[in-house]
From TrEMBL:
Annotated protein name in UniProt: Uncharacterized protein
Biological source species: Cirrhinus mrigala
InterPro entries in the cross-refs: HERPUD1/2, Ubiquitin-like_domsf
Lineage per the UniProt record: Eukaryota, Metazoa, Chordata, Craniata, Vertebrata
Length: 52
C-alpha cells in the first residue's frame, strides 16, 4: 500500500552531531515529520543540553 500523504503523527529520531564532543552526540526522539525548521529549533531549545 503506497501513501503519498505523510501522517501528521509520524515521528522520527535525529542524531545531532556535536563538533567538539563536549556533550557528545545527542539522540532527539519524537521529531514530527511535518515540523518546520522553526519547530525543530524550538524543540531543540527545550531538550538540548546547551539550549542552542
Amino acid at each position: 500500500m503506497e501513501n503519498s500523504q505523510v501522517s501528521d503523527k509520524e515521528t522520527i529520531s535525529l542524531v545531532i552531531k556535536t563538533p567538539n564532543q563536549f556533550h557528545g552526540d545527542q539522540l532527539i526522539e519524537g521529531v514530527r515529520v511535518d515540523w518546520t525548521v522553526k519547530d525543530l529549533k524550538c524543540h531543540l531549545s527545550k531538550v538540548y543540553p546547551t539550549n542552542p
